[in-house]
Amino acid sequence: MANRSSDEVERFAAIASLNRMQDIMRQTLAGGKVPVAEEIRLRVKVAEMLSKSSELRHPQFLHDAVEHLEIVLRKASHTSPDYPKYLNLMSQARTSEFMAVGSLRALDMAVEAAREALELAMERDFQTHDSETQSSIATNLAFALSRRHASLGNLDDLNEAIVWTRMVYEGAAKGSDLRFMSLNNLVSQLRRRIEQVYDDDLAEEAEALLNQLATSTTPGTLQNGIATGQLGFITFKKFKTTNSLEDLDKALEYCKMGLESLPASHELRVDMLITIVDLYSSRRSLKKDFLDLKYLVHYSELLFEALPSGHRFRGKHVLEHAQRVKEYVESACSLDEIDNGIRQINKQLSTMPAQFPRKNKCQIILTDLLGMRYTRTSDMQDLIALVDYFGAMVSEQNAIAGKPGSSEPLVSADWVWVLKADLCMIRQENILLDLAQEEVATKFLSLYEPEKPAILVLDEFYEKHSAYLHTMANGTKALLRLSDAEVSTNMETRENEGEASNSTNARPSISGNREYEAFGKRKLAIDSETGDIIWEFDRNMLNEVLGYDPNESSSPLSKEEFAIRESRAEQRAIEKAQSEGRHPNLHLCRMCRDIAKPLRQTQDGYLLTAEDIYLPFGNFHQLLFRRHCVICRLIFSAITTETEELHPRLAAIDREVQGTSLTTGTLSTGEKVMRIEYGLKHVGDIRLVTPQNCRQAVRQAREVTGQTSLEEAIKARTGPVFSRVGQQLDPSLIRSWLDDCDRNHGSSCNSARVHAGEDEIPMLFIDVVVTRHDPYGLLNKEFHVVENCLVAATSREKYFALSYVWGQVEMFKTMKDNCQLRQKPQALSTIAFPQTIKDAMQLVESLGERFLWVDAICMVQDDREQMDRDIPKMNIVYGRAFATIVALYGDSADAGLPGVSPGTRPPQLVEYLRVSSELPDLDYDPRNDRDEAISLTVTPRPLELELDTAKWNTRGWVFQERLLSRRCLYFSPSAIYFQCASKTLSEYGSNEEYTPMMLDTVPRKPRVSSKIAARDNALDLMNLLQEVTSEDERVIKAFGIYKDMVESYTRREFSFKSDILDGFAGVFAVLEKQFRSKTYSGLPAAVLAHALLWAPAGRLPRRGMRLPTPSDLSMGKPDMKFPSWSWAGWDGPVEYRLFKEVEGGLRLPAPLFTNHRRGNTSATNTVNKSNVSQASTETSGNQALDTDTHVKPDSAGLPGKSIQDKQTSSSKGKERASNDESKAIPVKLLADPSRGTTWTVGPPQPSEPWGPPLESNILSFAAPVVPISAFRISPEKEYLIQQHHIHTQGRQAVRRIYDRRGNHCGLWWEQAGYGYVGLSLDPQAETQIRMVGISAHRHIDRRLEGPSRVEGEIKFFDDKFFRAVGRNSGLVNVLVVWADLENPDAVGYRVTIAVVHVEAWERAGPRELDLRLA
Fold it and tell me: Rounded to whole angstroms, how far apart are CA atoms 1271 and 27?
């Protein structure tokens, strides 16, 4: 133990030393004045030291080494003689990273770096003048290829590795270390080659080489041990062929001898232990010897300990070890061995991360051992231990589910705690304890089977005996011994009272319906991210606290009445303070002055505090009338737009949730800030401006110079802080953001992204340099500067890209006839480009950079060949840009980049409050000379709120531009934001995460969207897919990325609606690689069963159509290029709500449809082309009147109205009525209180012919089908929340589905045009509506949570009548279609989606039918 402690001390000291070294280097480089050559030298030296630290078992050092080398490779010249060496170092570091954490992506990059290095070395003839370096590169390449073969089994990798190793071996001097190492590597690679494809000649060669290796080394040395171990590997392969016990034992002997010679950190040790474990496993199968099982467990434990802590296969090995321990314990039949097994598995689980994929299975094995122990002892304490551990598993699962951003579902198992409570009560010391323990054990043992998981036994035990146990617990509590008859009577009583489990085994859910009801009548959902609960305060209490007259009417007030009430309350508060002898500060409102008091005086000055902020601080309307208050003015500015209207995202929040809440937090500098939330959404921070933070908190503070202090400038309200003619950005601040990201953020921000492509493409750039002045010393003096013109280069250059909205302005585009002219010096100086382009050019120059790419200028707009080449390669253009400049402001290219030119943005809001220092409560007496000035400001709004109001963020074509960019500079109307994969920063922002504290003392769980960390970019996750070896897991993760991108993309707008798929083309290219399949009209074929189940996020028309209105009932025709079964066939946002819980561990549902194919590619069911048009025409009139109008509620629900009753004076309405005056169409008016509207719903009407669908868009498949008449669709709409805010009502509604017994069994997603379904308006039309089973979860082990409305969850079904967990507890995912299935040639169309409980679905009698959808 002493030696181990000493080793650990040395290890920690070495880690600390390396950390200090890195800190010193970062500080040295932070100033940006270190020459590039010196920076490269420093980073290479540090990377070499970090790469050699693998024995410290600190994977972060390898990650740091990679980041340093990535920067070296970016900054070093490609023609440098040392460039191949840098690539070789990168290959070594990446390989070491793979060895430490098992990252396949790291291994791929190691191979790529070594291949490039070897290619360069051969081109430059290293073999002649630097053969040592070339041999090193070839050795590293061969080793990486060999490792990749071991992981993926690609024989080409191994064959290539053998080629390079032979080359090194044959070129090495005899007796040299290089020759020994290459010989050992060659033998190892030959051995692996023989294992995969056995070859006698190769086997003989390998054995001869091994004998040569063994005889040339001294026994007991590392070299001899490696050779002996290699002999063991080959003998093991021989055993696999002969199945001879003699060969097996010989292989074991060799491997164990080799293992003894290997140090703990040797890279071959893990392979050796894996082989020994495999050998003992084989010996156990052959001999059935218990001793072999004991050795198997021993070496399995050693294997687990040898794996680095971050290794990706560690979870796999801990599970396999747990399984071996369980087998050993079952064979040993000893209580001591059971206890030892429990300790061993517990110990190993304690060394694993809090979450890893196989943890749950390991825990289940542990519960099996706990259950096994109870069957041996019958001690109720052991049963309680089993229940307690299972309860801990449940709590851990739910803790993960409750984390921000987690899609892990909550586990419904609160029955565990009920069971534990009963068992603990029964076990209380009393005279009946022994008898009670015996009875409980008897009942448990009657259900126990060794092969049945203990948690299932526990589940069945509770299901069958919960009432008995509860009665026993009550009897024990009363110290009574009840007879069986009394127990039965008691159980019957409890069942009659509804306390026992019902016939469907429904149990109370831990998550419940996630609603909360306290002081108010209405329930509102608990915020899933933060756990925040909404409640109402008593009106009388609020009136008293807020100073309202309790005698005033409580009815809703007009705007004028509201203003009068606020004014009166304010005046009363002032008069009360004056009557107490105070001098109330008139620049504060009564809330800030007397009630919440967010600003206070302390001995050390003034402090922002939330100590008394426990009441609602005020909503938009209250703050509007409190703008005389400096604090409320700051808050008001954070929640409103330039026109002083409530920000649209905040206005959409449920009105009962709207309101301001204030918390405080402390930055790393010690500064205390106040976080503002409106409707539980972070909108900014209030900061006190002090001499310590003024340069960072006040945007233009750097411009206050001379004799005037910042405090004086703020007090006078003059100078650069408040001037409207300046307000320009600070180039040095932006440069510091970019430099920090470039130098310190590593691969997350700087590596070639997986979607950026590896191709170097020709490009045109704007060279923005207009003078030779180089303030940053960035340009090589010998470099010829081409001034203010277009230059031809490639994507390898360092350049900025511009992302903006063109709008309706003259773009002065580059065309064939001016392209050559624009490449002459100063050619661009006379062109009146739109302001955004001019500002971008000025910005790039101010940053000391040269190249800018702008689509309108750098792509020859009338050169079809170039456009066809470059448009599909926007992934490279934006992916390789050093940064993307984003114009958030305005709706055209003339809007400019606020802050680049003088006077283009408003001054920052900095408030000034005067107080009398000798008076309390921030009072102010103008007659008192002892006054002080307090300056306050508010930070910019979070970037996501700026994106919400930007026209740029609504455009479809910019979707890829943001996703593909490595880092972005966003120019909003009042602030500049920087965002990369690591950080989001802003001018005068807090720019760091901190823990908000309620009442200054209670930590509050931060919201995901409030974090300073990186952008939410689904493509950033693509690289992680390379680490996934399981095909199912990879598909699940890829589908999760796909659905996130589709949900975001479909919210965008296109000037030309038909661009919907083209605007997603770059993403499709990436997705097809990940899914390893084509996409069908935007849906990946590999996951078609899941991709079909998108849901509308509002009322969507078909693409090319429009929604009807009361004044215009015409809807037009759909664009038949886009099929109805694809989201691309509909115009508007869609969601994949049915897959909310998949990423949390629930598997994707099993497909129910078969034989799917696109187009008429099958020999069966071929449609005669002459009938296609007719069939399509006859079946095209399937959409109905479905509009909402703002009418008085008392007009709702009047059946039998004629459609003419709703006609207006519009020309289209008149035409429709006059052409069809003889036909009155029956409609229903349905009140919709949630939206304050009334729906006018009518049956489907004939429409103009749609024309035939494209054959390539016809999707054919077979699936189970149920007529809609098997169910009843409720007319009541329940609106879902917006996915990103739980208290914001969305535009999409669902309706409940009921089976023929009247039980709620599913949900129906409302779809525009089909509102008549379920209203009995046209039963004949409804016969064409079919429910098609697409996929299903037959059995689930935890309750699926339904979609949410503002008030909480909408359950998928009523769990009083349908099972929520266990057998037949799942859901069928349904695609609802309009189709004439009596006509085999007919083509159907998508209507919507639905979900139905599997039991209700089966009762409806589904039939397997062939379908064809267009």
Answer: 70
Per-residue HEC secondary structure of 1339-1360 comes to: CECCCCCCCEECCEECCCCCCC
**pLDDT value at residue 1165:** 34
> What DSSP line would sit under 21-37, residue for residue?
HHHHHHHHHHTS-S-HH
Surface-to-core class of residue 61, CB atoms within 10 Å of its CB (0-12 exposed, 13-18 middle, 19+ buried): buried
Using CA atoms, how far apart are residues 1203 and 432, in angstroms rounded to an integer?
A: 78
Asked whether the beta carbons of 372 and 444 are under 8 A apart, the reply is: no
When pLDDT is cut at 50, 70 and 90, the band that residue 90 belongs to is very high
**DSSP assignment string, 754-786:** TTT-S---EEEEEE---SS--TT--S-TTSPPP
Distance between CA atoms of residues 285 and 48, nearest Å: 47
Handedness of CA 79, 81, 84, 86 (dihedral sign): negative
Question: Distance of CA 1213 to CAs 1108, 1111, 1200, 1209, 1217, Å?
Answer: 11, 6, 20, 7, 6
Alpha helices in 1238-1329 (DSSP H): 1323-1326
What contacts 344, CB < 8 A, 6 or more positions away? Answer: 301, 325
In DSSP terms, 1377 is beta-bridged to 1330, 1390
What number of other Cβ atoms are within 10 A of residue 438's Cβ?
A: 12
Per-residue HEC secondary structure of 1051-1092 comes to: CCECCCHHHCCHHHHHHHHHHHHHHCCCEECCEEHHHHHHHC
The tokens of 428 are what? 């209380």
- Residue 770 CA to residue 762 CA, distance in Å, equals 24
Contact at 8 Å (CB) between 1300 and 1157?
Answer: no
Orientation of helix 177-196 relative to helix 155-171, angle to 10°: 150
Question: What is the rounded CA–CA span in Å between residue 1353 and residue 731?
Answer: 49
Closest among 942, 388, 283, 975 to 675, alpha carbons compared: 942
Q: Tell me how far apart the alpha carbons of residues 969 and 985 are, in angstroms, rounded to a whole number.
A: 10
Q: What is the pLDDT of residues 317-335, one digit of tens each?
A: 888 899 999 999 988 878 9
Query: Quick check: helix, strand or coil at residue 375?
Result: helix
Per-residue DSSP letter, 661: E
List of residues 6+ apart from 956 with CB closer than 8 A: 1049, 1052, 1053, 1054, 1059, 1060, 1063
User: What pTM was estimated for this model as a whole?
Assistant: 0.72
What does the DSSP assignment read for 390-410?
A: HHHHHHHHHHHHTSTT--PPP
Closest Cα partner for 1313 from 1155, 1184, 1159, 1152? 1184
Token pair belonging to 720: 């650069």
Which stretches of 216-244 are DSSP H helices? Answer: 222-242
Q: Which of 291, 276, 283 is nearest to 244 (CA)?
A: 283
Q: Is 78 a residue whose pLDDT tops 80?
A: yes
Residue 1387: C-alpha distances to residues 76, 581, 1092 (Å): 61, 84, 17
Element (H, E) at 99: helix 83-101
Is residue 178 within 8 A of residue 158, CB to CB? The reply is no
Is 1213 in contact with 1111 (CB distance < 8 Å)? yes
Question: 805 exposed, middle or buried (CB, 10 Å; 0-12, 13-18, 19+)?
Answer: buried
Other beta carbons within 10 Å of 865 = 8
Q: Is 1168 left (phi over 0), alpha (psi -120 to 50) or beta?
A: beta
In this structure, the number of other CB atoms found within 10 A of the CB of residue 739 comes to: 16
pLDDT in tens, 1002-1020: 776 655 444 444 456 766 6
Backbone angles phi, psi at 838, to 5 degrees: -60, -40
Q: Which stretch of 130-134, 166-170, 602-606, 1137-1141 has the lowest confidence by average pLDDT?
A: 1137-1141
Residue 975 DSSP code:
-
Bridging pattern class, strands 883-887 and 799-803 = parallel
